[in-house]
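Support request, please re-run this one:
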Amino acid sequence: MNTESSSPRAAVWFAVAQLCSHEEQATGTRFSPTFVDALSQVVFAQAETVGADLECFAKHAKRAKISTEDVKLCARRNDDLLQALMEKIEGGSSK
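Re-run finished. Output below.
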């Protein structure tokens, strides 16, 4: 594995491991290292998919930069996520 791809993967693994550790402390549920590894792989793969989708949406709109509209398009099938994004966007635009 090259350095460029292992660094983001390591960061995702670390974040997932921290979240699992926090959840273990809060609920007493135990997560095996195998589970943490598998979950971090799923999270990384999903992030790659979302990134590619965002690039495609921006390219389709003939833009070089990803906009909040592209992010909302990615979230359109998850009502809770879309609502949270809308609230965040509306809160940020009032500043």
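Residues 33-60 form the longest helix (28 residues). The chain has four helices and no strands.
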